[in-house]
TrEMBL record:
<keyword id="KW-1003">Cell membrane</keyword>
<dbReference type="Pfam" id="PF07690">
    <property type="entry name" value="MFS_1"/>
</dbReference>
<keyword id="KW-0472">Membrane</keyword>
<feature type="transmembrane region" description="Helical">
    <location>
        <begin position="486"/>
        <end position="504"/>
    </location>
</feature>
<dbReference type="InterPro" id="IPR005829">
    <property type="entry name" value="Sugar_transporter_CS"/>
</dbReference>
<feature type="transmembrane region" description="Helical">
    <location>
        <begin position="144"/>
        <end position="163"/>
    </location>
</feature>
<feature type="transmembrane region" description="Helical">
    <location>
        <begin position="175"/>
        <end position="196"/>
    </location>
</feature>
<feature type="domain" description="Major facilitator superfamily (MFS) profile">
    <location>
        <begin position="21"/>
        <end position="509"/>
    </location>
</feature>
<dbReference type="InterPro" id="IPR020846">
    <property type="entry name" value="MFS_dom"/>
</dbReference>
<keyword id="KW-0812">Transmembrane</keyword>
<feature type="transmembrane region" description="Helical">
    <location>
        <begin position="16"/>
        <end position="38"/>
    </location>
</feature>
<feature type="transmembrane region" description="Helical">
    <location>
        <begin position="279"/>
        <end position="303"/>
    </location>
</feature>
<keyword id="KW-0813">Transport</keyword>
<feature type="transmembrane region" description="Helical">
    <location>
        <begin position="87"/>
        <end position="110"/>
    </location>
</feature>
<dbReference type="InterPro" id="IPR011701">
    <property type="entry name" value="MFS"/>
</dbReference>
<feature type="transmembrane region" description="Helical">
    <location>
        <begin position="344"/>
        <end position="361"/>
    </location>
</feature>
<feature type="transmembrane region" description="Helical">
    <location>
        <begin position="58"/>
        <end position="80"/>
    </location>
</feature>
Length: 525
């Protein structure tokens, strides 16, 4: 059935057409969200298959996040320039093709490259899908649209680790990317057939100025900074010429980007809105929220598989149940915010929950089972849920309606940047902390200690095999302690910025402002 919508007759779809549009948009959004988390449970297998270290294989995650940082703030501009439907179809195709090449990769850096390309395509899917679903409903039903999309937002990250675990345990790791191909093809066909163009979309191309310099400076600055953070520890920081050069490149790139966005007539990212309302302070919270979310879901699978002996499926299940329990919170918070409730109490609860999560997770050990981790993961889910929508709501507090889209796009970009930074920080911190813990553990191995002698005896006596097993045990304990310290570090980040909630206080929004904010959030990029 061909949709009857046209650019000249923008009627709201009904019946089967609306159902197909919603399913198509949700499928594309969930596909992107699943791919953000599905990789985490497969990192050990990917590292082993491609002959890479866990530290290097982290680029598979961060390359996607970096691409998102670059593309998310440009999504609104690109949709205006090319037309929303055309850009949406191109993004699905790019994501699908990149997924195929990710699965076909035979080296780590080939996989990292295609993950970056996949992130460039995926960056548009979430926000554009949201706008498409919003337009498929009449104004009085758009609360239903928000609820449907909100459930999709929860569903994707929830299913990702579980599906990844099942695939990795029963098939080859490459199938975590191959599964996107049929979904992407179907979504492309349905989009072309059923999703109509908005009136006048793609016709303003001659009026839109492209900030090529801003795009280049953002890409160079973020890419250089990420390399420095990821490789600085292993390359001995400023003893490496490459690190020195890329540090200077990052400073010049990001500094130039900020200057360009503040002085350009048509900036790609409107940084001027940072001086309005509470957006400047809110972005600090969004950055740290990104650090907490990405770091915790990166470190946890590596910890439980490397130290606690979890299979990928066990890892996915251990992440699934806490998330399912936390799902009802999402629509409840959305309803409260839509009714005019202040986001501040939710943000405070989310911050405190993440502090407790970080320090509680730091008390677990190598013998912990799935249920021992359940409460920690439950706290993580509650923390993320309490922060996600309220921080977007807080981002537009005190701003004029015309600045809402820019504020939300900037807030989302900062969150992704925090995620990329968090993973790099976790890698560097674990490497340094592991070396210190190993040194301390080895220093305490006293040959005269009867307990050590007994341990060696159980391992087969003072033989090469026994010493090798002892070395592995020390290695395992050093990594365990470093991962636990990383969780504590996450808690410390949230604890440090918690006093800044004082600066988030704003006057109560009017009913009109609440309605405009809800509309902006539904169409935000």
């Amino acid at each position: 059935m061909q949709a009857t919508l046209t650019a000249s007759a923008p009627a709201v779809p009904t019946g089967l057409v609306r159902f197909i549009i919603v399913v198509t948009a949700i499928s594309a959004a969930v596909m992107e969200l699943i791919d953000v988390t599905i990789v985490n449970v497969a990192l050990n297998e990917i590292a082993g298959a491609l002959g890479a270290t866990i530290e290097d294989v982290a680029w598979v995650v961060t390359s996607y996040a970096i691409a998102n940082v670059i593309i998310i703030p440009m999504t609104g501009f690109l949709a205006d320039y090319f037309g929303r439907k055309r850009y949406y179809v191109a993004s699905i195709i790019l994501f699908t093709v990149a997924s195929y090449f990710c699965a076909s990769s035979t080296s780590l850096w080939q996989l990292v490259f295609w993950r970056f390309i996949q992130g460039m395509g995926g960056g548009a899917l979430l926000s554009t899908s949201q706008g498409i679903i919003f337009d498929a409903f009449p104004p009085d039903k758009r609360g239903v649209a928000s609820g449907i999309f909100g459930m999709g937002i929860i569903l994707g990250p929830t299913l990702g680790p579980f599906l990844g675990g099942v695939i990795v345990d029963n098939y080859h790791w490459s199938y975590i990317f191959y599964v996107n191909v049929p979904i992407g093809i179907l979504a492309t066909v349905l989009t072309m057939l059923y999703i109509a163009k908005k009136p006048g979309e793609g016709t303003r191309k001659h009026l839109i100025k492209i900030d090529y310099a801003g795009i280049l400076l953002l890409s160079v600055g973020v890419g250089s900074l990420q390399y420095v953070l990821e490789k600085g520890q292993s390359d001995d920081w400023f003893e490496s010429k490459a690190i020195v050069v890329l540090t200077l490149t990052a400073i010049l790139g990001l500094g130039g980007f900020v200057w360009r966005q503040l002085t350009a007539t048509h900036p790609v990212v409107n940084l001027r809105v940072l001086s309005k309302g509470t957006l400047g302070v809110t972005t600090i919270f969004s950055f740290v929220a990104g650090v907490g979310l990405f770091t915790s879901v990166f470190v946890y699978p590596v910890l439980v598989q490397r130290i606690n002996g979890f299979t990928p499926t066990m890892t996915g299940i251990s992440l699934l149940w806490p998330t399912l329990v936390g799902i009802p919170l999402f629509p409840l918070i959305g309803k409260r915010l839509s009714g005019g409730a202040s986001p501040l109490p939710f943000i405070i609860i989310g911050m405190v929950t993440f502090v407790v999560f970080g320090f509680y997770s730091g008390t677990l050990n190598g013998q912990a089972n799935q249920w021992d981790f359940f409460w920690a993961q439950m706290m993580r889910v509650v923390g993320v849920t309490m922060l996600q929508l309220p921080l977007i709501n807080q981002a537009v507090a005190g701003l004029p309606p015309q600045d809402f889209p820019s504020a939300i796009a900037l807030n989302n970009m900062i969150r992704q940047l925090g995620g990329a930074f968090g993973i790099a920080l976790a890698n560097t911190f674990v490497a340094r902390d592991y070396a210190q813990h190993r040194y301390d553990l080895v220093a305490n191995l006293d040959p005269a200690n009867p307990l050590l002698a007994e341990r060696l005896k159980l391992m087969g006596g003072a033989s090469d095999r026994a010493y090798k097993l002892l070395d592995l045990a020390v290695d395992r304990q050093a990594y365990l302690l470093s991962y636990l310290d990383t969780f504590r570090l996450v808690g410390i980040f949230f604890l440090i910025i918690l006093p800044l909630v004082y600066f988030l206080r704003t006057k109560k929004k009017s009913a009109e402002e609440i309605a405009l904010a809800a509309k902006a959030m539904s169409e935000a990029h």
